[in-house]
Specification:
This protein is of the alpha+beta class and 109 residues long. Helix content is 15%, strand content 34%. Strand 5 and strand 6 form a beta hairpin. It is globular.
Length: 109
């Protein structure tokens, strides 16, 4: 990976959804051949203030959800899509009592 850009622009969407942009530049010229058990991340998860609003925004722009908004076992709301390159992307709305949110508060409940 040669370059990563992270940019937050709260005024980007008229719906009020704040997006963070992450760009990954791999530097390759050819697509890698699919393998059965690749090394690397299975998906990228991005926090959303509202998964329902994010799903509606994505759908309104022609993006097909691979997983509709649902509550996970960790109490977080989530939905998933695939990027044009086939990468799995998850959008997660953190529940204050989820393990991820508690970890961000130093494990305090």
């Amino acid at each position: 990976m040669k370059f990563i850009t992270i940019r937050t622009n709260p005024d980007r969407l008229s719906s009020g959804i704040r997006l963070q942009f992450i760009e990954l530049y791999y530097g390759g010229r050819n697509r890698p051949q699919p393998v059965k058990r690749p090394v690397g991340f299975p998906h990228l998860c991005l926090e959303a203030e509202s998964v329902e609003a994010m799903a509606a925004h994505l759908c309104s722009h022609g993006v097909t959800l691979s997983v509709e908004p649902q509550m996970g076992k960790d109490r977080n709301w989530q939905c998933r899509v695939h990027s044009p390159d086939g990468n799995r992307l998850e959008f997660m709305q953190l529940d204050p009592q989820s393990p991820q949110a508690r970890c961000g508060r130093g494990g305090r409940g």
